[in-house]
């Protein structure tokens, strides 16, 4: 009988740090909490609760990672969020291996 106790280790794909990107939203003095929450829900499809948490982080910590995924998806999300005039950055999430 072949019993596998541990899952296969993924070399690439979602959550592995390879070819993954993040979307970072930065705080400003122009957008309201409601505007930021609404655009996050629209752009990322996240829940109202998650949008509230991320908006709190943006306001209180100065920035928040609001999405992660493949580069084209992150660029689309960032462009949507930028429509309200907020600063957004897309960065590689790659983990360097020693």
In brief:
The chain has 98 residues and is of the alpha+beta class. The chain has 3 helices and 3 strands. It has a 3-stranded antiparallel beta sheet.
Characteristic key phrases:
98 residues, alpha+beta, 3-stranded antiparallel β-sheet, 3 helices, 3 strands
- How are strands sequenced across the largest beta sheet? 2-1-3
Uncertain parts: 4-17
Helix/strand/pairing category? alpha+beta
Main sheet, how many strands, which sense, barrel? Answer: 3 strands, antiparallel
Kindly estimate the percentage of residues that lie in beta strands according to DSSP: 15-25%
**Number of DSSP strand runs:** 3
Mean pLDDT: 85
Determine the number of helices (DSSP H or I, runs of at least 4 residues).
3
The portion of residues assigned to helices is 25-40%
How do the SSEs run, as a string of H and E? EHHEHE
- Gyration radius, to the nearest Å? 16 Å
Shape: globular
Cα(first) to Cα(last) distance is 37 Å
């Amino acid at each position: 009988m072949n019993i596998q106790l541990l899952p296969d280790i993924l070399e690439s794909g979602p959550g592995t740090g390879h070819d993954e990107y993040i979307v970072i939203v930065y705080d400003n003095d122009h957008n309201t909490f409601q505007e930021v929450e609404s655009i996050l829900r629209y752009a990322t499809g996240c829940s109202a609760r998650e949008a509230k948490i991320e908006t709190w982080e943006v306001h209180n910590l100065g920035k928040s990672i609001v999405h992660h995924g493949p580069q084209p998806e992150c660029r689309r999300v960032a462009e949507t969020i930028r429509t309200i005039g907020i600063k957004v950055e897309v960065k590689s999430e790659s983990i360097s291996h020693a």
